[in-house]
Design a protein that fits this description.
single chain, 310 residues, alpha/beta, 8-stranded mixed beta sheet, 15% strand, globular
Length: 310
C-alpha cells in the first residue's frame, strides 16, 4: 500500500509540474533603432506560424496602449495566439519614439511605418524558424500592413481597416461633426494634392492641417486601400466588429468587394479594441481604458482557423 501510495503521489506531482509549465514564452527583441518589440511564441511548437502585429493610428505601443488609454488589446491578442500555437511579433510604433530618436513631426512619413513592417518581415523570413509569416494590421495598420505584405508575407489579416483614402475619411468625419467646414476641408485637401501644402484652412482645422503634420497626411493620402488590396496575391482575412464606433463594417465589405476571394468575418458586438460590447456607446468608450476586459471570444478562433488553413 505504501508503494502504491508513493507511486500515486509521484504521478500526481509530475502532472502538477507539467501543468505549471508555461504555454508560451516572451522575449524582448529589437531589430534596429526604430523597431523595439516583443516576440511571443508557443513553448511546445518547434516551427510555429508567425504573425506580425501592426497597430492603429497614434502613438501606440506594442501592447496596443497610448497615454491615458490602456486596454492591452495587442498584448492579450499575442498571448492568446501563442496559447493557440501561433507566434507573434509586436513593436512600438516609430511615432511613439520620436523624442528618443530625435525625429521632428514634420519629418515623419506614412512610408516610415511601411518600412518598419517590411524590415520585420525580412528579418523573420531570413530566420527560417517559422512555418509561415502573416501580417495583421489594425485600423491604420491595416493599410500599412497591406502594403508591406505585398510580395513578402504568406497571408494578410485586416481588423477594422478603412477602405477609403485618409482625406476622404477625414472629409466625411468633419462633415458629420461640423458640416459648415466641409467645403473648406475639401479645398484644403485639393490644395495639398495639387501644390503639396495648404495654407487657407479654417483655424478650427489646425489639428489636421498644421504645417508640421501636412507632409505626413500627404504621404498617407497617396494610398487607396481598395487599390492596394487588389495587389495582394496571398490569402486575405477581413475582420470588423458590428459595434466598432470608429470603423463601420461597411468598410470591410468594400475591401471584400475589391478582393472578392478574401474571407470576410463580421464579429457581432465587437468594438474597435476587440471587446464584446453589450451596452451603449458609453460602455463602448470606457472599454478603451479597461485592460481587465477579455477579448471578444470569437476573435482568436477566427484568426487561428485562418492561419492554420494556410
Amino acid at each position: 500500500m505504501k508503494t502504491r501510495s508513493l507511486i500515486a503521489f509521484l504521478f500526481f506531482l509530475s502532472t502538477v509540474v507539467v501543468a505549471q509549465q508555461p504555454a508560451f514564452t516572451s522575449e524582448e527583441l529589437d531589430l534596429n533603432k526604430y523597431i523595439k518589440g516583443t516576440l511571443t511564441f508557443p513553448s511546445d511548437v518547434e516551427k510555429p506560424p508567425l504573425v506580425i502585429l501592426v497597430q492603429g493610428s497614434g502613438p501606440v505601443d506594442r501592447n496596443g496602449n497610448q497615454s491615458f488609454m490602456k486596454n492591452d488589446s495587442f498584448k492579450k491578442l499575442a498571448t492568446q495566439l501563442a496559447e493557440a500555437g501561433i507566434a507573434t511579433y509586436r513593436f512600438d510604433k516609430r511615432i511613439l519614439q520620436m523624442r528618443r530618436l530625435g525625429i521632428k513631426e514634420e519629418d515623419i512619413r506614412f512610408d516610415d511605418f511601411i518600412t518598419d513592417v517590411s524590415t520585420a518581415l525580412e528579418h523573420f523570413k531570413n530566420a527560417d524558424a517559422y512555418k509561415n509569416i502573416s501580417v495583421l494590421g489594425h485600423s491604420q495598420g491595416s493599410l500599412v500592413g497591406m502594403i508591406a505584405a505585398k510580395d513578402k508575407a504568406d497571408a494578410f489579416i485586416s481588423i477594422a481597416g478603412a477602405a477609403h483614402p485618409i482625406d476622404s475619411i477625414i472629409v466625411d468625419q468633419i462633415a458629420g461633426q461640423m458640416p459648415g467646414l466641409k467645403e473648406n476641408v475639401q479645398q484644403s485637401f485639393k490644395d495639398m494634392r495639387e501644390t503639396g501644402s495648404s495654407r487657407n484652412y479654417n483655424p478650427m482645422l489646425e489639428m489636421v492641417f498644421r504645417p508640421s503634420v501636412q507632409p505626413f497626411i500627404l504621404s498617407w493620402m497617396q494610398y487607396d486601400p481598395q487599390k492596394e488590396i487588389q495587389e495582394l496575391d496571398i490569402p486575405v482575412l477581413l475582420i470588423n466588429g458590428s459595434n466598432d464606433l470608429q470603423v463601420q463594417e461597411e468598410q470591410a465589405e468594400l475591401l471584400k468587394k475589391s478582393k472578392p476571394e478574401a474571407e470576410l468575418v463580421i464579429l457581432e458586438k465587437m468594438n474597435h479594441v476587440f471587446r464584446k460590447i453589450e451596452g451603449d456607446d458609453l460602455e463602448n468608450s470606457k472599454s478603451y481604458n479597461d485592460a481587465g476586459l477579455p477579448l471578444h471570444p470569437e476573435l482568436v478562433p477566427v484568426i487561428t482557423n485562418f492561419i492554420n488553413s494556410l
